[in-house]
Amino acid sequence: MGDIRIKGDEMVKRLCEGGTMKQRYYVLLFIFLFFLSQASCGKQPGQPGSAGDTGLILSATLTPHYNGTDTYSVDVHQEVCDPGPPPVLEIFTDHNAVATFTATLERPDLTVLPGTLYIQQYTIDFYRSSDSVGAPPIASDRRFTTIVIPPPAVGSTTPTTVTATLVLVDLTRKLQYYNDMLTGQFTSALNNTDLINNYTAVYTFYGQNDFGDSFSIQATTNFQIGLFDYCATSGG
Question: What are the structural domains, with CATH classification, of the chain?
Answer without folding.
Answer: 8-40 (no CATH), 56-233 (2.60.40.10)
